[in-house]
Amino acid sequence: QEKKIFTVQGPYPVIRSLLRARGWVEKKLPSTGKIGSQPEKHHGSQEKQLQEEEGGEWWHEDPDGIHDLMSRLVRDQVPYFIWTNQHSTFNCQLLQDQVVNHYTRVGAFTTKEGLCLNLRNLPWFSQTDPDTFFPRCYQLGAMDEQHAFIEDFRLTAARSLLKIALERAGDTLVGMEQPLKSGEGPGKSPVPHPMSSTGGSGPPLSPQLVEEALQVCGQHLGSLEHADIDGDTPSPRMTGTDWDRFLRDHYRVVHEGARLVLSRAQQERCQVLLQRLAERLPQLSMEGDHNVWILKPGAKSRGRDIVCTARLEEVLQLAGCCKTKLAQAGKWVVQKYVERPLLLFDTKFDIRQWFLVTDWNPLTVWFYRESYLRFCSQPFSLHYLDPARHLCNVSIQKQYRLAQDRHPQLPPDQIWSCRQFQAYLAQVGQAGAWDQVIVPGMKAAVVGALCSAQDLVRSRKSSFELYGADFVFGEDCQPWLLEINASPTMAPSSAVTSRLCTSVQRDTLRVVIDHRDNPACPTGAFELIYKE
Fold first, then answer.
1. Tens digit of each residue's pLDDT (9 = 90 or more) over 320-340
2. pTM of the model
3. Which end of the chain is least crowded, N or C, by CB within 10 Å?
């Protein structure tokens, strides 16, 4: 009569324990069927954490069989609360007013392909520019997307050549943002960023190479400022053969140390041109000068099959980009790699940030105040593009050993809480970065991604869904959204994640059960950040 019957499918012992403690009865699933239960891992540390924090009575193994008995008593009843690890395990058309932890058609923003395509529509819904928080991205299965990526790769190579020319000439980019010195801190001496090389040692290349880069970047600036519409006769553009040679020379400069020869006048033109491009291109600073891109399968998770590369031909070959393999290429997206990330003790990290959607019409978004960082096992370097240095996913990093000279302040389990990160920022003189830059930037990115996909998701009044967004930060602490995950893992990979995953599940129930019935109820660490 109180509609306190629930069903759980998947590895969610915390949800089960929390609902039982509230007086709910579980309708256990049969071993086969549409929702069919699968053997679950019992994360005892999470249930122990709950017992210590709440002080209630918990049934870990149901020694008296009381819950099996109660489940049999409600076997013919309809569950009113359903928590599963994927929406395909139930038939939405058969649901009435049951509360379910999924929406359908969320692939519009929870797949790499969906996020790539739909964020481009954001300017129709918001004044926010997606280029300020989402690295530019292309879906390689469409020929026009493929051509746009090739053009972007070439333009980025030209810009990076100008940056290298200035750096090796000893100039400073006036007006460029000053980065947070990520290596500074107790017991740490500053280490030069990979971009700060001071000169090449290889044979000099023709001065014409810099002149070509200046011409290409000037033409691009003209198109950005629309000067190409009503200006003078345009300069001749480079052919495909010209670009092949240019990219080979660019690679020699970046990776083989070939020296550049340029005049003082060219140095000044480089500086002015990059300053003007920085006003038009929000990603100019973070894109670096190695022209590294990251190739991702469009619908996979946990870092599977992701590759970093700085060669155009490698991207096209790996993705199978040719007219006879467009169907295969359609499974891949390629995205500009953040070459100048904020590092902690020379090590890359990302952050898992939870948020909750309780309605799509009107769009209602809750942001979790707690989050956690995931570290790579090897020090960051753009000269080595292996996963141990560049992919922070727990499932990837557990395959690698920690670096022998790893800084002692880095956690052995490769996880920090956001509070530990905030303490670090305070130590290096950036105490305000979390509240003033990082959190507002993550909130804006989350809301922007949801607004861009809102019309594509199937709304349902009794549903809700918890998501996990992954961010990296630039040297200026600016957040860059990488992806959004449906059904984010709740498995405790460390002491930090055991505590936080327990907390976010408990607070999710507070929002979707308690707050739904009584808006005055506390919502834990969830903060309502957006409601249309």
1. 754 444 445 557 899 999 999
2. 0.86
3. N
